[in-house]
């Protein structure tokens, strides 16, 4: 990890990203975000109001406003790798050091959204399985750790 001269950006390396697992993670994330988008649409006059917990609405607003479209270039590389059947991929991100607390907050919010999915009361999206949750935390841990000066940990080493 390195900081470019004259800037406060940090280089974060994600090593041996399991592309198929990333694709599954992306599908689950996309389903959740689609459901959040539908829930965010105001109800029509006279339409029966939806009973959505306030905390879930706060999660929807924060995830939609703060964390979408952060890594478009890397996402395109992962999509291309998935389409080509590539097994794993290394990527480099240049992010502000402030991304560490944001990554921690994102992980906590997604864990909370997972719980709503498990409860099955307010969301139809299925909760991610254990592999997807572990992958998400590896992904986010790389941003958190590397912005704090730790070395990158490749996916296979993380899962051992």
Gap from first CA to last CA:
23 Å
Helix count?
6
Instruction: Work out the helicity level.
Output: 55-70%
Strand arrangement, major sheet: 1-2
Number of strands: 2
Computed Rg: 17 Å
* SSE series: EHHHEHHH
- List low-pLDDT spans: 1-6
How would you classify the helix and strand content by structural class? mainly alpha
Largest sheet: 2 strands, antiparallel
User: What value does the average pLDDT take?
Assistant: 81
β-sheet strand percentage: 5-15%
Mind sketching the topology for me?
Elements (H helix, E strand, L loop, with lengths): L8 E10 H22 L13 H13 L5 H13 L3 E9 L2 H21 L10 H18 L7 H4 L2
Antiparallel strand pairs: 1-2
Helix pairs in contact: 1-2, 1-3, 1-5, 4-5
General description of the model:
Helix content is 57%, strand content 12%. It has a two-stranded antiparallel sheet with strand order 1-2. The model is unreliable at 1-6 (pLDDT under 50). Helix 1 crosses helix 2, helix 1 (19-40) crosses helix 3 and helix 1 crosses helix 5. The protein has 160 residues and is mainly alpha-helical. The protein starts with 8 loop residues before the first strand and ends with a helix.
Question: Which key phrases capture this entry?
Answer:
disordered N terminus, 160 residues, 6 helices, 2 strands, single chain, mainly alpha, two-stranded antiparallel ribbon
Question: In a few lines, what is going on in this structure?
Answer:
This protein is mainly alpha-helical and 160 residues long. The chain contains six helices and two strands.
């Amino acid at each position: 990890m390195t900081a470019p001269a004259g800037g406060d950006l940090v280089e974060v390396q994600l090593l041996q990203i399991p592309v198929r697992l990333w694709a599954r993670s992306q599908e689950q994330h996309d389903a959740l975000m689609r459901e959040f988008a539908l829930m965010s649409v105001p109800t029509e006059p006279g339409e029966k109001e939806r009973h959505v917990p306030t905390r879930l609405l706060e999660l929807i607003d924060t995830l939609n406003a703060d964390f979408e479209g952060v890594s478009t270039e890397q996402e395109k590389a992962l999509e291309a790798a998935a389409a080509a059947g590539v097994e794993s991929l290394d990527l480099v991100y240049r992010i502000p050091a402030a991304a560490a607390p944001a990554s921690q907050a994102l992980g906590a919010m997604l864990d909370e959204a997972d719980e709503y999915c498990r409860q099955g009361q307010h969301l139809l999206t299925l909760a991610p399985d254990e592999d997807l949750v572990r992958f998400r935390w590896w992904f986010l841990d790389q941003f958190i750790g590397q912005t704090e000066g730790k070395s990158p940990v490749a996916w296979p080493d993380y899962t051992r």
